[in-house]
Design goal:
alpha+beta, 6-stranded mixed sheet, 42% helix, 305 residues, globular, 8% strand
């Protein structure tokens, strides 16, 4: 008589520990693919008290004092998302990144919607801050959404870049370059949290790290919001739980806004264990966290007889 040794034949699981761990890993990956949640989406869904869990009033504020003012943002003729992407990507291109690498996301999006040849022509025209270069970059950036959100819902927008818009965009890049001269250099762009993602937050990456500061980059016409401060706090906590030791050197959280020409900074030592634990356990989903960061203890030196 045959003996069936499947997972439920005797009322208990007869698989090896390795087989069960592999099955659990596959189930976790499937759940994350079926129900993705980014850092930004998770933070936006979390109800905060008035003023936020991490009030911006706790941050020190530094105005960089660019003597060249911007035109009012209402005069800009490009969508807000394209303005932000332009300042971000062109700052990368002006600080050592190859232009094609800086614009790799919209180039991918253009290929997904069948406009790869047009995107190649546009990126070849991005060579600085002339009007033609800025217009080509902004038209290329319209494909960014197709890459990030999928080509199915993408529709082209009319991109009209006038003189005041060109001035604002190029000036915000200049302000970002001056900011990085003082607070840089950048040690990691598009930082990730591999090993720190959970069932509650399955994706997301940040803007850039300098040697001791985790930075978020915004071009809003308003100061940081409670969602913005909670976002950088969540990034930092996920970084500490990730597999990247670079996050152990982070001592400050920063927000940079070139439109306002202002940076906000907060020493992480001012963030209490209670708030750290709440973010760890309830927002990100690390079980049993008390918010206390325990340093990695180096091995004891070997005594030589």
């Amino acid at each position: 008589m045959p003996c069936f040794r499947d997972a439920g034949a005797y009322g208990f699981d007869l698989r090896s520990a390795e087989e069960m761990m592999e099955a659990e890993r596959r189930e976790t990956d499937l759940r994350r693919r079926l129900h993705p949640m980014s850092v930004v989406a998770r933070v936006h869904a979390w109800h905060q008290p008035p003023g936020g869990l991490l009030p911006v009033s706790l941050f020190s504020r530094r105005v960089m004092d660019d003597p060249m003012p911007l035109h009012d943002s209402v005069a800009e003729t490009v969508p807000a998302d394209i303005a932000g992407l332009y300042v971000d990507y062109m700052t990368r291109a002006m600080t050592g990144s190859d232009v094609r690498d800086a614009f790799r996301v919209p180039l991918t999006g253009a290929r997904l919607v069948g406009d790869g040849a047009r995107a190649e022509r546009l990126v070849s025209m991005v060579d600085g801050f002339s009007g033609g270069s800025i217009r080509a970059a902004c038209m290329l950036l319209d494909y960014d959404r197709a890459s990030r959100h999928g080509p199915g819902g993408w529709r082209p927008r009319r991109i009209d870049v006038d003189g005041p818009t060109c001035w604002n965009l190029s000036r915000m890049v200049a302000r970002s370059l001056a900011f990085l001269d003082e607070y840089g250099p950048v040690v990691w762009r598009d930082f990730r949290f591999d090993g720190g993602y959970t069932d509650l937050i399955t994706s997301g990456d940040g803007d850039f790290l300098t040697c001791d500061t985790l930075w978020d980059f915004k071009v809003s016409k308003r100061p940081p919001t409670p969602m913005g401060t909670l976002q950088v706090l969540t990034y930092w906590r996920m970084g500490l739980h990730s597999r990247y030791p670079v996050y152990r050197s982070i001592r400050r959280l920063g927000l940079w806004n070139p439109r306002l020409d202002t940076a906000w900074l907060l020493d992480v030592d001012r963030i209490g264990d209670g708030l750290r634990g709440l973010v760890d356990e309830r927002i990100i989903g690390y079980p049993g966290s008390d918010g206390r960061d325990r340093p990695r203890v180096p091995p004891a030196p070997v005594r030589r007889e």
